[in-house]
Each structure stands twice: as C-alpha cells, then as structure tokens.
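Protocol step 4 of 5: obtain the predicted structure for the target chain.
Materials: sequence only (see below). No template structures provided, no constraints applied. The aim of this step is simply to have a reference model before the mutagenesis design in step 5. Sequence pasted as it appears in the construct record:
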Amino acid sequence: MSLSVPRFDDSVVMREAGAEVLGPAPVTIRLLADSSATGGALTTQRVTLADGADGARPHFHKGSAEMFFMLDGEALLLSGDDIVTAERGDLVVVPPGRPHAFAAAPGADADILIVLTPGVERFEYFRHLRRIRLGEVPADSILDVQDLYDNHFLSSPAWDARR
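Step 4 output (structure tokens):
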C-alpha cells in the first residue's frame, strides 16, 4: 500500500456564511471544501435532511471511502446489505467499493457532515443534481457523469425494502 501525501500550502477555512448552499428543504447541501482546495486529501459537505428525506440513492465509489458524522438527528445508512440507524454523535465510514445510501429516518431530521477521502472534485456533481431538480437537464444525465465524479449507481433490494 502506498501513501499519497496531499499537497496544499494553507489551511482550509470555510466559514458557515461563506459556504455555497444548494437547495432548500427537504435537502440542503452546504459545500465546504472540494478536493482542489485540500490537495486531494478530501472533499466535504454538510447535508441537512428534513423528516424522512432521501439524501442519496444506492451507489458506490471506486476510489474513495465516505465518512458520515451525525451532527444532529437520526439517519438511515445503507452499507452493503446492512442498514444502520445513526444518531447524533455517531460515525459511519464506508470503504471504497461498498454500496451505500442515506436518508433521514422517518419522523426525524438529519444533519450530517460527509467526508470523501481521498477527495474527488464533487462540487460540480452537486450542482448537476440541482440542475436535475430544477428541470434544466434530464434526470438520466446523471448516468453520463458517474465516472467523472466516481459516483456509481446500483440497485439495492435491502434499501428498497426499507424505504
């Protein structure tokens, strides 16, 4: 195993007021630091989900692990075929290649800090999702950018049965 050392000169400081915010409730995404800002070390965003809202449908990343830290509330997280209920203060880390998804638990909101490492330029991915929600591009256009953003969708009977 080789270790890649990220290269960036200054600390990354993102104030809450300076974060780009995408979408009103039920899904709000705050873009905090993209891979280019962290020398490839990580990409991070904060996702706030209203009562039972879906965060991401089942997918996997070929080259990155994804960390979910529950700032508040309660969320359901798919990891492989298992569904974990995470609450305030809980941490879930999904390894590369493992199918995962997340949503606010029914009857609960969720506030989640998400970190992808090593980082992938993903802010434009979230902007693409916003364009889909606004009807500016077709929904299936997300399939055209799966490799670009290392976000590969799949089906999950375990997730479908629970959702």
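Step 4 remarks: The mean pLDDT is 94. Helices lie at 123-133, 157-162.
Proceed to step 5.
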